[in-house]
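cache lookup: miss for this entity combination. No prior model stored, computing from scratch. Input as submitted by user K.M.:
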Amino acid sequence: MTRRPGGAVALLALLLAGCGTTPDTASSTTPAGAGPSGPSGVTGEVTVLAAASLTTAFTTLAGSFEKANPGTTVRLSFGSSTTLAQQIAQGADADLYASAGTTALQQLGDAEPTATVTLARNTLEIATPAGNPAQVTSLADLARKDVDVVLCASSVPCGRAADEILAGAGVRAHVVSRELDVSSTLAKVTLDEADAAVVYHSDVVTAGDAVDGVEIPAAQNTTLTYPLLRFGDDAATTAFAAYLAGPEGARALRAAGFLVP
Amino acid sequence: MTLDAQVRLTRGTLELDLPLRAADGEVLAVLGPNGAGKTTALHALAGLVRLGAGHVRVDGETWAGDGVHLDPSLRRVGMLSADHLLFPHLTARGNVAFGPRSRGASRAAAAARADAELEALGVLDLARRRPAQLSHGQAQRVALGRALATDPRLLLLDEPLSALDPGLRPQVRATLAARLREFRGSAVLVTHDPLDALTLADHLVFVETGRIVQEGSPTDVVARPRNPYVAQVVGLNLYPGTADDGTTVSTPLGAVVTGGHDHRGPSWVAFAPSAVALYPDAPHGSTRNAWAARVASVELVGQSARVRLVTGGAGPAVLAEVTAGSVATLRLQPGQELWAGVKATEVSAYPR
Amino acid sequence: MTVADVSPASEGGAAARARGAGRRRAAGRVRLSRAVLVVPAVLAVALVVLPLLGLLAGTEWRGLPGRLADPSVRPAVRLSVVTTLVTVAVCWAFGTPLAWLLSRAEGRTATWLRAVLTVPVVLPPVVGGVALLLAYGRRGLVGQPLVDAFGLRIPFTPFAVVLAQVFVSLPFYVLAVEGAMRGIDRRLLEVSATLGARPLRVLTRVALPLAAAGIASGTALAWARALGEFGATITFAGNFAGETQTTSLLVYVALQDDPQTAVALSLVMLVVAVAVLGLLRGRWLR
């Protein structure tokens, strides 16, 4: 860890991530480099910017990593992949960046990752309020006038992917809102303000009983890869990246509904 | 009897209970010190303040009382205050026309009425000006015109001249007097300036802490005050006492010899400050009343001086009005001991 | 005040020298205490001005007209214009009588009402959006009966945009206008009543003209607040081009895939805001 983690930058990142994200900074009180080092000998801080769909998995993983490696601190910031990429391009402090899909990577500008691995894959799914009151069973149902559909904005990966599969299926969905990221898209369904939303399978899994999932057949669906980009070579960053890509990471991601290779 | 009112209400510590009556064309002046409840009474007549009890009837119509409280806009009143209170966003004409317009007159009729009022008050040439472009005196005339333009049955004047420069007052007072003579309704004038009351009113009511302490015609009140405040307003020395015989009255000043009276028992004794003469030593001769006194203050007004005296240590005060020459001759200083004398013929006594 | 005024009086040659030194020290203290005031003031100005300069510096001026011709811009601007004007109209129609009644009311109810009205002013807009959802949403206090009775759904409609804007801007308007009306000499209103003006006429012919400056600045405040409304709108009304995507929302969305359009739109909003401010300043504000 060579760069100083800027608290102000992290705060700015949270603010910029804006509405609908789940700002969550999991951090221990152990200051960087102080105190006894853990069994692995790794200490330091890792700042992670991650797509909103990774919120649950990464929060769990950060906690278990810090426990396993006393002396490490993981700072997490979640938001739309695009927004986070822009923040990195603007100089936001990030040791790791996990994006939903690869399109957002174009927004990284001059920021060059030192390493990239594919962390997980995700597919799209229709989420409905619990009990599926509007009786949505397929993509075609999303065109019904009595079904209020909420999608992510076209500028963020989940929205772009949804546009793609709806166009592929030839469905003109009855869309009432394009939300700014996948969390707020799902929230409209959770609050029962919309009848259906196209979100990631992982979101439906994480939401639990609050929503019902309607699977989209593979022929109509698309698969999104989640690349993990590493900026920097310090021990803590490398260790956490390996942890995410390792068996513990895979277990947590699978639990959160992701497909792990 | 056009105005027949019994104003009863409580405001803070003030308990107001005033009978106010005025016939058509009559001007009733209400005098009293600050806080006596004069303006509150006026507001009660206008309907801006609710009566606690009592009534307000005008021309036999009940405006307030008996469970009635007519909104101010439904009472035919005109009001004029110390500050002209013209609407700053309207011209003089617009201000005067406001009342007629509010009471349903057409735009043209209201403007014509406004011009007539302004003309009668000699300010028609200012019709297009806004209040900010008017002098105090001009604005007050426009405000009077505005109050009269609705043909009120009851005109309420609240210290109409008190905010004007002293130099302007006589002019505006004359204008007001002329308009009041033509005015056919009843008018109530609240003032603490005796000159306003004496020159404009037909009947005076003196109010202290919400009650009438004396009322009567101006000439009667000026000659025979029956209350210390009234005496102060009309500028007389007044003392309560008991008439023992036809020539003397026992008062806090001692036995006062009068010019002769034909009553016995409770009595008032009054004499003018100008009747009081000052002497360095005890006077002799025709001066029948003389008291040792100490000078409390001296105030020079032009060629005469008002000298406040305290008799017999901390006894009753006497106000004397002497010439500036006397002040110089006697070298009057606060604290100075001297004698005050009044001739018996200058002292009047009347039953209390 | 000169420095000499504050130095203690003394006599004699040595004392005079001491006085000279004392004066210099005192002058230094005056300069220091002035600096203590000036430095934060300058910083305060910088905190406000720097972002604005950043916006100007970050604009690609050459491409500006093209950016503003983007097909997403026109519907958003039109929606913003229409909804903010409706919001202002709602403020006038409902807010003015409320401000008037509040300005004349005394007692506990008015005090409480005033406090309640202040809540949206201090509430985070997103929270306002949640509150609006819980009131007018499909499962909301008022929204559910509306859906059940008329099949009327409020969220995701321009009407919801207006509701969100009214929620945040009406309090600004009412408080500004109430303040102005409270400043009117009560006696002018009493006089107009004695002249025969009924309450409505007192309001329209006397109170409104006299409170014109307050109404103008209240309107500007409310309008600017409505134009900039983001959190409550995105939470309650959603984001759909032509329906609920206002200019503020478009700026945020565009920032993700077309930052220069976002910058261009931001610049337009800045210009409009400055123009409104200037217009008001020239005409009503002093």
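stored under new cache key. The CA atoms of residues 30 and 190 of chain B lie 5 Å apart.
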